Amino acid sequence: MSSRQFLRLEYVTSAESRSAGWHDVLGAAAFDGAARDAERALRGDGIDVPLAHVHAPVLGDAREVLEVWRIGAPTQPGSSGHVRYSHGGDFLFGSVAVHEEELASVAGSGPRTPLEMATDLVYREMYATLAAAGNPTLIRVWNYLPDINLETHGLERYRQFNTARHEALLACGHAVAGSVPAASALGVAPGSPLTLYFLASHRAPAFIENPRQVSAYRYPAQYGPRSPAFSRATVLGEGSEATLFISGTASIVGHRTLHAGDPAAQTRETLVNIEALLEEAGRRSRTAALRLETLAYKVYVRDPRDLPAVRAELASALGTGAAVLYLKADICRRDLAVEIEAAGGGRAAE
Ligand code: 3EB
After folding, report:
1. Which segments within the chain are labelled E, that is strand?
2. Which residue of 176, 190, 211, 287 sits 20 to 30 Å from the alpha carbon of 275, by its own alpha carbon?
């Protein structure tokens, strides 16, 4: 086994990923219409790599519609329930998708909504996968669900999701505050399945909170009956080997939304939040190598008409060289127009 493994994130086309080879790809996510292409490329090459299909349209002129995670070491695929996963070196990547209608027909669904049942199922299957793999620590989870802001059964669907996630974590014996993974939760195309992908590591990360924000797991009850169980960021490793995972970050200070109706100002506030997380993560992982320019970004924009304003703010903060993928997705609060996540580290710039 090589002495030091790295986790590298790239946004590429499936042709680019194919020419780089699949041998050390731990997992990938495909956006919008890219999934079929990617699936065909993988099958054509006889490759078994977990591929999450995220039903969010790519905005702007990007052709890079595959998010690829490489580890620089061989990987071993597997599956468990609805989860497809790959294990390699210190890392595990998994992908799982479940249609709520699949579960709605289950007899005696009781007091739970279809989304709550789907969330319960995917979280339990994710934790079962991790338990069977020797219990690596969950460091990053991406959650995509349709109609995130729609109210059904008397509760907004994002809040239903939070309720079920919180209860599944407790049921599986996991913390719901403190040592919880970094995460994103976004609304995707109506009719698409609840889709998760996740990264876990046999090395424990540091869990990072933002001093400008109330921890999401301490949000007051006005945001829903169960608080969202995620950390603002996690960081693996130290010094030049640190890899940072920044959760979906928005224009929230304390627990309140700022700049409702002003996407440019929301983008600036979000970048201030990300800089605060970089400073915290740098302190915790003893490095100055984590900088805005060394990260790769996913930017979720609710209304595509806001793209020029959002993009202008990012260009002025990051320059034009940074890797940024823009996606159309609904943010989990109606008054939020934009949400930004990021990942990378010293090695990402290589
Ligand atoms: C926020 O700060 C914005 O529920 O997993 C960001 C990242 C948000 C993750 C989640 C929600 C989640 O509260 C929303």
Report:
1. 8-12, 25-31, 51-54, 66-70, 76-80, 83-88, 91-98, 137-146, 151-152, 155-156, 182-188, 194-201, 206-208, 233-236, 243-249, 252-253, 256-257, 295-301, 323-328, 338-345
2. 176
Tokens of 145: 């669900």
Give residue 251 CA to ligand 1 midpoint distance, Å: 11
Q: What's the pLDDT tens digit per position in 257-304?
A: 999 999 999 999 999 999 999 999 999 999 888 999 889 999 999 999
End-to-end C-alpha distance for the chain, whole angstroms: 22
CA of 82 to the centre of ligand 1 (A): 24
Residue 336 CA, ligand 1 centroid: distance in Å = 11
* Residue range 218-241, pLDDT digits in tens: 999 999 999 999 999 999 999 988
Residues 51-77 have pLDDT tens digits of 999 999 999 987 778 999 999 999 999
Question: In this structure, are residues 333 and 258 in contact, taking their beta carbons and an 8 Å threshold?
Answer: no
Give the mutation target among 126, 194, 231, 247 for probing the ligand 1 site: most ligand atoms within 8 A of CB.
Answer: 247
**Residue bearing the CA closest to ligand 1, atom 11:** 185
CATH homologous superfamily of domain 8-344?
RutC-like (3.30.1330.40)
Chain centroid to CA 9:
13
Q: What is the pLDDT of residue 105?
A: 61
Which pLDDT tens digit goes with each residue over 176-234? 999 999 999 999 999 999 999 999 999 999 999 999 999 999 999 999 999 999 999 99
| Rounded Cα gap, residues 179 and 167, in angstroms | 16
Our mutation pick for probing the ligand 1 site, out of 219, 277, 332, counting the most ligand atoms within 8 A of Cβ, is 332
Say whether 10 is catalytic.
Answer: no
Q: Which atom of ligand 1 is nearest to the CA of 161?
A: 4
Q: Are the CB atoms for 310 and 297 separated by under 8 Å?
A: no
Task: Tell whether ligand 1 has an atom less than 6 A from the beta carbon of residue 252.
Answer: yes
Catalytic residue among 101, 339, 341, 350: 339
